[in-house]
Amino acid sequence: MIRWLGHKLLRSPWAYELVQKLYGAEEGTRRVAELCADLTGDWILDLAGGTGRLAHLWPEFGHYVCVDLDRGHLAAVRERRSDAYPVVGDALALPFADGVFDVVISVSLTHHLTLGQLDQAVGEAARVLDPEGSLVLVDAIRVPGRLRSTLSWWLDRGEHPHSARELEDVISGHLHIDHFDQFDLVHRYVRCTAHHRRSSTGDDG
User: Which of 60, 79, 135, 169 lies most in the core, judged by the most C-beta atoms within 10 Å?
Assistant: First the structure.
C-alpha cells in the first residue's frame, strides 16, 4: 500500500522533482554535464526526459527535444526552456527518422526496463543517432548488499535495476563505448558515452 501510494504520488511533476532532489539530482546533473561539456550539434534528444530538468545543459543546441510517456511531466518542459519540443513517445519505438539527432541522452531510464526492453531502447537510440553523434547514458545500477540502495529500490517505480556489466554489454552490442565509469550517491551510478562504430577502413575510436 505504501509503495503504491508513493508511485501514484510520483506522477505529480512537483513530487517527481522533490524526489529527484532527495536522490542527489543536482550532483547527478553535474556528473552528466561533465560528460556533455565537449558535445556539439544542432539537435539533442532527451530520452524519457520527464520534466526536462537537463534542458539547461545545452543552451547552444538549436533544438532540444524531450520525449516521455508522461504528459503531466512533459507539461513542465517549456517552463524550463521555452523553445523546447516536448513529445509524447515511447523509448522502445521512437517517433523519429533515422540519424536525426546529434546527441541522444538517457538519464534514469534503464532501471524501468527489462533486459530485453533495454536492448530495444538502446537500439532505438542508436537508430535515431547521427552517424557522427554521441549517446550519453547515466543511471543507477544494482549493487548487491548495498542496504541504502536496496531500500530506495523498493520505493522506486523502476523495478529492473541492472548491473554495470549488463549495461555495458547491451550498449556495446549497438555502439562503440568511449567512456564508462561509476559514481556513488544514494545508489551507485554508471556514466557512459558511446558512438557508432566506424567502418572497417576507419579508426574504431
Answer: 135
101-107 vs 129-141, strand pairing mode: parallel
Instruction: Label residue 41 left, alpha or beta by phi (over 0 means left) and psi (-120 to 50 means alpha).
Output: left
- Looking at the 3D structure of the chain, how many domains does it have? 1
Asked if the structure places residue 75 within a domain, the reply is yes
Answer whether residue 200 is part of any domain.
no
Provide the domain limits for residue 125. 2-195
How far apart CA 85 and CA 82 sit, in angstroms, is 9
Across the chain, mean pLDDT equals: 83
Distance CA 118, CA 110 (A): 6
Rounded-to-integer distance, Cα 10 and Cα 70, Å: 11
- State the Cα–Cα distance between residues 196 and 189, nearest whole angstrom: 23
Flag whether 70 is in a domain. yes
In a domain, 8, yes or no: yes
Q: What is the pTM of this model?
A: 0.81
The least confident of 67-76, 116-125, 149-158 is 149-158
CB 13 within 8 A of CB 51: yes
